[in-house]
Amino acid sequence: MKSKSGVAKGLIMISQIGISMLVPIFLCVYVGRKLDDSFGTNYITIIGILLGIMAAFRNIYLMTKSFYAKDKAREDAELNYLDEMKKERENRRKEDR
Q1: What's the predicted TM-score (pTM) here?
Q2: In sequence order, which residues have a C-beta less than 8 Å from that of residue 35 and are 6 or more positions away?
Q3: Where, by residue number, does the polypeptide cross the bilayer (predicted)?
């Protein structure tokens, strides 16, 4: 049962990533095109594309950062434990000499 919930969480995460990338890009392109049509220019759409891409990557970064926070905390705890074990082993070696 636990593996099915993991698969579901993964699919939901992939869907959220796709939506979080597409919405800002298309929205900024749409606004850029409307502004280009209003002002008679050709460069505002390009600026909109760049702003949309930056917003999309920001959304993805924030989303994945929170998704992997538990894994990072567990990994940090394991690394701290290993460092403590190394220090203890070195102290024992020094005492044995």
Answers
A1: 0.67
A2: 41, 44, 45, 48
A3: 12-32, 44-64
